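Dear support,

I submitted the protein below through the web form. The confirmation email said the job was done, but the results page showed an empty box. After a refresh the structure appeared. I'm attaching both so you can tell me whether what I see now is the final result or a partial one.
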Amino acid sequence: MRIVAGIFKGTTLYGSKDKKTRPLKDMVRESVFNFLTHSNKIFHSLEESNVLDLYSGTGSFGLECISRKAKRVVFIEKEKETLNILKKNIDKLKAKDKTKILFNDVFQTFEESEKIFFDFLLGTKFDFIFCDPPFKDANMEHLVELIVKKKLLKENGIIIFHRHKNTEDKLPAYFEIIDKRVYGISKIIFGKLYSKLS
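What the results page shows now:
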């Protein structure tokens, strides 16, 4: 697993031996970032963007954003061993000043630890939110609802889901899928919220 492009291009990241941790393959990550960089459906630049990396694992998506000059990335990860690898990867890139980490479950963070979470974010809204939950999780509709309720996404911001290609998630009617791509067993969904809700 390596950084595909940007100032840290070619840097190898530490990986996890835990089979539950499922980082995007380099080829898939490269394709995702090509879409984010070059599609006329994307209105925010990765440069100077704020990124929220949910279920962040060892950080391959968020750290790719840092390499491509994102302003700040907030990681949320609940597995302690994986979190330690994420910290090692951040240290390896000397990117601590551009990152923040919350050690918690995503839904618990949004629903039960609201004050801690929002004090931590200091009012940040995000240009991009990447969601890579376990394939077995089936509550993506609620996750989008919470993103809307907490006003986490900027207007015209993008939510990216990594799901199993055969998963048919129920999503809110105000979540507009702007692109969908399949790579092996993985499916990447790019979407945005109708402007009146974002």
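Response: this is the final, complete result; the empty box was a page-load delay. The domain at 28-197 is CATH 3.40.50.150 (Rossmann fold).
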